[in-house]
Write a structure and sequence with these properties.
Largest sheet: 6 strands, mixed
CATH topology of the largest domain: Ribosomal Protein L4, Chain: A
Shape: elongated
Number of domains: 2
Strand order of the largest sheet: 2-1-3-6-4-5
CATH class of the largest domain: Alpha Beta
CATH superfamily of the largest domain: Ribosomal protein L4/L1
Distance between the termini: 18 Å
């Protein structure tokens, strides 16, 4: 692949590791990894009261027979205003575990997909002396990136992350925080040479 600088000029070439960017894509693993990621993000704090928990309803609102109205046993039955909720949602844990090897292979499948679609941009480096959103926005405009995941590593990564925080459609990530969902969600996978070396070290 071509290696670009932040001005969009070609400064060299690099060969991607086929053990990471050239594996057999298994869609069921990608699906499982994405579902697990989204499920693990859910707070699971939703809660509503059942008829046993709402206030009132201790006595029968009117006698069983003779009123001409439908029989009722409690003013807190689900059909009453202010009544309890049938099968009310309660706080629960939605998360589930995916095996480490499955999770890693799903990430490799996602990276292979991006490589096949030619949606990977390799940069020699992104060096920002200080966190400046305007500087970062200019770099992205030069590279024609609108919806991208930027993976960085090293000393300058903090300034890059802070600079890209407020830019819509852009997300930054360290190599250790890479996940299948983010790789697939963003149109372009942008990675520095230093981060690419780290990815190959961790996942190869």
């Amino acid at each position: 692949m071509k290696v670009l600088n932040i001005n969009g000029k070609e400064v060299g070439n690099i060969e991607l590791n086929s053990d990471i960017f050239g594996v057999e894509v298994k869609e069921h693993l990608i699906h499982a990894a994405v579902v697990a990621h989204l499920a693990n993000k859910r707070q699971g704090t939703q809660s509503a009261k059942t008829r046993a928990e709402v206030r009132g309803g201790g006595r029968k609102p009117w006698k069983q027979k003779g009123t001409g109205r439908a029989r009722q046993g409690s003013i807190r039955s689900p059909q009453w205003k202010g009544g309890g909720v049938v099968f009310a949602p309660k706080p629960r844990d939605y998360s589930f575990k995916l095996n480490k090897k499955e999770r890693q292979f799903a990430l490799k499948c996602a990276l292979t997909t991006r490589a096949t679609e030619q949606k990977i941009v390799v940069l020699d480096e992104i060096v920002l002396e200080q966190a400046k959103t305007k500087v970062m926005a200019n770099i992205l405009n030069t590279l024609k990136l609108k919806k991208a995941l930027i993976v960085t590593e090293g000393e300058s990564s903090r300034n890059v992350m802070l600079s890209a925080n407020n830019i819509q459609g852009i997300k930054t990530s360290a190599v250790n925080n890479l996940n299948t969902y983010d790789v697939l969600k963003y149109d372009t996978f942008v990675v520095t040479k230093e981060a690419l070396a780290k990815i190959e070290e961790v996942y190869a």
